[in-house]
Amino acid sequence: MKRMHDGGAPGLNIRCDELVELVTDYLEGVLDEATMAEFDAHLALCAGCGEYLEQIRSVARSLGRIPLDPLSDGARARLLAAFDQLHS
Prior knowledge:
The protein is an all-alpha fold. The protein has one domain (about 15-85). Helix content is about 65%, strand content about 0%. It contains four helices and no strands. It is elongated, with a radius of gyration of 16 Å.
């Protein structure tokens, strides 16, 4: 996780582009307490980031959970490899 900027007012220690990178971790509830507080404070100040978060939530609700069972072994392996590359 990227280090937030120190010393500013709550919500100003994280930039919008940094918040975008943390959205998945935020929604999964895996951010540390300080980062979560800064994320929430930024959302209170930034309507654009709040809208972005709601769009991601909406997409997640619409898609739900896509089961991997119906995929062929090759397709499943390629999909999982692609996700692994995103996190590398």
